[in-house]
Amino acid sequence: MTTFEQLTVDQLEEAAAYIAALNSNKKFHIGFCGTEKEDILGDLHEDFIEESQVNMFVTRNADKITGLVGFDIYDGTAEVWGPFSREQQIENQIQLWHFATSKLNQVKEFLFFINEENTFQQQFMETIDAKKSSDELYLKRMKETFQPYEVISSEPYSEQDFAQFEAIHSLAFPNTYYSARTIVERLHNSAHQLIVLKENHALQGYAYFETDDAQHSTHLEFIAIAPAYRGLGLGKQLLNEALTLIFANDAITHVTLTVNNTNTEANSLYYKAGFQKQDALLSYVLQV
C-alpha cells in the first residue's frame, strides 16, 4: 500500500540517502542535487526547512521511500529537487506532486532541472504542463591546473552599484531565478559573493557566486558584461579573476556553472577557461 508523507527533520538523513542513490544514475538524475549523502544532507538542513517545517515529501511502500520531491523556496519561487522515483510509476508520482504542492500555497513558480537521459521525468513535465525553458550545460572547472591572476581589478559590490548592476543583470538574464535585488539580499550569507568590474564609476560587469565549503565547491551563478564593454576581453578577465578569488579558499576543489547550450560565445569562453561538461540538463518552469 502506497502512503504519502511530509518528512520531519529527523527523517532527512533517510531522504539524503535516497537522493544520493538515485542521482548517481543519469536515468534518475536531477540537476544540482549532488550525489554524496553527507553533502546532500547539509543542503537539506540549510535550504529545505522553514520554521521547523520540512519542504520535502515522499511516497512509501512497506515503510520504504519509493518517491520523493523537495522544494528549495525563495521569494515565491521553488527550485524542485526531483521528482525522484525508483519505480517510475506515473500515477503515484502525480498523487505525490498534488499532495506536496497542496502544502505550498506561497509558491507561484516551480523550476525543474532534468537530466537529458531522465526520460521518465521529462514525460512527467508534460503531464503537469511544465514548459521547457532551455537546454543547459552543467560545467565543472577543477582547481589543480588553474593559474591564478596576480593582479585583481574587480572589487566587492557596494550599494551604490545597485542601479547599474540591476540594469546589466536584467538585460543579461531576463526572467531568471534570482533578481538583482534577490542577489543583493542573499549577500547576508558570507559564502555568497558579488564582485564588480568598473571603469571610473561605470560598471563594466559583475560575477556572483555561492560557495559550499562542505562540498568543496563554488557555483558561479551569474557573470555578465555590460553591452558597451563587450568584445574587449573583459568576460575572460572577470571569469579568471572570479576563479582566482574562489580558489584562494583552500577548501574549494572545483567550480561549477550552468550555461545555455545555445550560447556558443559563452560556452567557448568557459571551455577555454578549463571548464568541462558534466551533464546536459533540460530546464522547465511551471507557473501556478
Automatic annotation (TrEMBL):
<dbReference type="Pfam" id="PF00583">
    <property type="entry name" value="Acetyltransf_1"/>
</dbReference>
<dbReference type="InterPro" id="IPR000182">
    <property type="entry name" value="GNAT_dom"/>
</dbReference>
<dbReference type="InterPro" id="IPR050680">
    <property type="entry name" value="YpeA/RimI_acetyltransf"/>
</dbReference>
<dbReference type="InterPro" id="IPR016181">
    <property type="entry name" value="Acyl_CoA_acyltransferase"/>
</dbReference>
<keyword id="KW-0808">Transferase</keyword>
<protein>
    <submittedName>
        <fullName>GNAT family N-acetyltransferase</fullName>
    </submittedName>
</protein>
<keyword id="KW-0012">Acyltransferase</keyword>
<feature type="domain" description="N-acetyltransferase">
    <location>
        <begin position="152"/>
        <end position="288"/>
    </location>
</feature>
